[in-house]
Amino acid sequence: MLLGKHVINTMAAPLELYCWKGGWGLPSVNIESLTVLAYAKFAGAPLKIHKIANPWRSPTGSLPALKTHGEGSLSQPNKIIIHLRKQKYNADYDLSAKEGADSLAFISLLEEKLLPALIYTLWVDPKNYVDVTRRWYGENVPFPLNFFLPSRMQGQQLERLRLVRGNSRLEPGEELEKELYRDALECMNLLSQRLASQKFFFGDSPSSLDAYVFGHLALLLKVKLPNGKLQQHLKSIDNLSQFCSDILTLYFPNDGRETPGSKISTQPHSNDFDNEPNKRRNQVLSVLVALGAMLSYALLTGILSIQQVHPQGALGSSKGHGAGTHDEDEEEEVE
């Protein structure tokens, strides 16, 4: 039976979504996870949600990831949303052809103009990264991954920024920041004009565009950033700020926290990965990574040191030197 935007199918088992856990009053701390969570809510998709802080426990090794019935696992928001539409959970069911085209245009604008600035402010800006981003991941990612995963993710985000901007030699700096923030402010202003006084971008019901806008703006709105230039501009735009707050109130009233009787779990059940073909590989990798991380930590903190022994007749001193530098220790430090 067709009910508005989706078909209710009580016989099918719910799909499983793995996403980054929540923080700062949000159901997730990750842009892509927020987008998928919002779309699933809007479309009425009955998902079993696993909110975790270890991407290696995802069936794809990344987050968000959707575990499907018969089509493997999907890890990109657009692919996840397309699959949900195939299952008749379509938040764009009521959109006209023109509205559908407008939606695609604005989503492209978000990814071209706003996303690079968000990556920069959360992952590249030194003050924001050290005081907020690295701190959260260092405190929430399980040991020993928390020693190196935040730095690895920062490197991946910088490469992503270079890819989005089409410049493999792009380097952080004041000039780049101004350029990115100028594009982001223009994008937010256009979104504000399009939303106007409406509740959602196409009227009284949310669509995929609303999910993407929420996913990109909610984190910027809620996180307390030391360098908040971009954040201050968003907070000055009343309708966009209210838009994010309304979605949180209407669709995530518990701020992503687990409630009695819900299908949300903060950790997968012990048998969630029993049937995954790469389970053995993941176990071996986890052990190797744990050993490597502990050895690196010991070297960096001076618990262990590497000494080079020179022949007695050689020039120079034969004193041993620690393997790590102060900068490396700062990069891996969990505050």
UniProtKB/TrEMBL annotation:
InterPro entries: Glutathione-S-Trfase_C_sf, Glutathione_S-Trfase, Metaxin1/3, Metaxin_GST, Mito_Protein_Transport_Metaxin, Sam37/metaxin_N. The chain crosses the membrane at residues 284-306. Residues 186-247 form the Metaxin glutathione S-transferase domain. SUPFAM superfamilies: GST C-terminal domain-like. The keyword Aminoacyl-tRNA synthetase does not apply. Involved in transport of proteins into the mitochondrion. Essential for embryonic development. Interacts with MTX2/metaxin-2. Associates with the mitochondrial contact site and cristae organizing system (MICOS) complex, composed of at least MICOS10/MIC10, CHCHD3/MIC19, CHCHD6/MIC25, APOOL/MIC27, IMMT/MIC60, APOO/MIC23/MIC26 and QIL1/MIC13. This complex was also known under the names MINOS or MitOS complex. The MICOS complex associates with mitochondrial outer membrane proteins SAMM50, MTX1 and MTX2 (together described as components of the mitochondrial outer membrane sorting assembly machinery (SAM) complex) and DNAJC11, mitochondrial inner membrane protein TMEM11 and with HSPA9. GO terms for cellular component: SAM complex. This is Metaxin.
